[in-house]
């Protein structure tokens, strides 16, 4: 049985949108409790080896307090920086060491960081962030059980693991960065707090999905032309004085009218130039890239994003295969 990795981001669910909107703080003590339940679920499935990303709060170490587990838990030998680089390097290490899957605790930004280096290792993302479009609202116990199913029976996992798309920001043929949900282009300025909440500064939005049940900037696209996850297409929106405006929840408790200049669905074969320079580009809700005057960047939709575990399908198929049954002695 291959090991299972856990990456819990201690910084998720605490950005400035707690001040400018009405998002609840997702405390690290609750993340400790979630990881504890994940470990108990993994242990119940006979998983033998779990490897956890260390962090400055000690989420994994605290989760082990007073737990009597048969499985072995170790921590990745990682020099901490306290940034998303910790998640990026941890995902690479877990991929290199043949993890069966990676359980993540965070929001869209955390999973974007993990997706950069996880390779073919499937993700099981649990929502503990601000905007949670990519990860799931999920009980940790079920996450641990589902991850255990993957670890114990990974050869039969094709029926419940799917490939998520990603947006690629490119400079000519060079890959600059990626996003799993949205690329938002705004007026030039400072990266500062990184989170985006001021609609008046936004000029363009690129989306991999646009579902009406989502929060964040994907909700803008959802109320113009709904596009489900894994549709194989993307949405490009230009903000401006058009004939319509859309009411959208761009952050928890922050509902705004957004004026739409134009919008269209685009295919993976298309390369769409970012038309506003200079500008700042936010990736999955966090401002990451400063675009200098004259810098020519394009956005592509790639079907080659991370592999993601469908929890309900994994548990259903395991049940159908009588995975949870044992003959009476």
Commentary on this structure:
By secondary structure, the chain is of the alpha+beta class. The chain folds into two domains: 176 residues, Rossmann fold, CATH 3.40.50.10330; 137 residues, Tumour Suppressor Smad4 (Sandwich), CATH 2.60.200.30. It contains eight helices and 17 strands. The chain has a six-stranded antiparallel beta sheet with strand order 12-11-10-9-14-15. A hairpin with a 2-residue loop joins strand 14 and strand 15. The protein is globular. The model has no long low-confidence stretch (mean pLDDT 90).
Short account of what is shown:
This protein is an alpha+beta fold and 329 residues long. The chain contains eight helices and 17 strands.
């Amino acid at each position: 049985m291959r090991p299972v990795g856990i990456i819990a981001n201690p910084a998720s669910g605490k950005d400035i949108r707690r001040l400018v909107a009405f998002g609840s703080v997702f405390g690290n003590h609750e993340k400790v409790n979630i990881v504890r339940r994940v470990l108990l679920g993994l242990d119940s499935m006979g998983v033998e080896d779990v490897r956890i990303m260390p962090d400055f709060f000690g989420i994994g170490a605290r989760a082990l307090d007073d737990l009597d587990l048969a499985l072995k838990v170790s921590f990745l030998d990682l020099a901490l920086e306290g940034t998303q680089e910790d998640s990026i390097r941890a995902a690479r290490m877990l991929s290199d060491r043949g993890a069966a899957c990676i359980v993540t605790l965070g929001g869209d930004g955390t999973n974007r960081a993990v997706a950069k280096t996880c390779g073919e290792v499937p993700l099981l993302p649990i929502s503990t962030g601000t905007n949670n479009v990519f990860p799931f609202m999920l009980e940790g116990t079920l996450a641990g059980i589902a991850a255990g199913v993957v670890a114990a029976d990974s050869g039969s996992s094709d029926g419940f693991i799917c490939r998520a798309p990603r947006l690629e920001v490119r400079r000519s043929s060079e890959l600059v960065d990626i996003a799993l949900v949205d690329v938002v282009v705004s007026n030039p300025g400072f990266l500062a707090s990184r989170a985006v909440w001021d609609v008046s500064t936004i000029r363009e939005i690129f989306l991999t999905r646009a579902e009406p049940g989502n929060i964040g900037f994907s909700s803008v696209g959802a109320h113009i032309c709904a596009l489900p996850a894994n549709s194989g297409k993307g949405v490009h929106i230009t903000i401006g004085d058009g004939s319509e405006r859309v009411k959208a929840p761009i952050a928890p408790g922050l509902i705004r009218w957004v004026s739409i200049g134009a919008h269209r669905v685009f295919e993976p074969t298309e390369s769409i130039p970012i038309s506003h320079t200079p500008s700042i580009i936010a990736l999955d809700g966090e401002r990451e890239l400063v675009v200098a005057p004259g810098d020519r960047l394009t956005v592509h939709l790639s079907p080659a994003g991370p592999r993601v575990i469908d929890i309900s399908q994994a548990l259903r198929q395991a049940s159908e295969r009588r995975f949870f049954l044992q003959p009476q002695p």
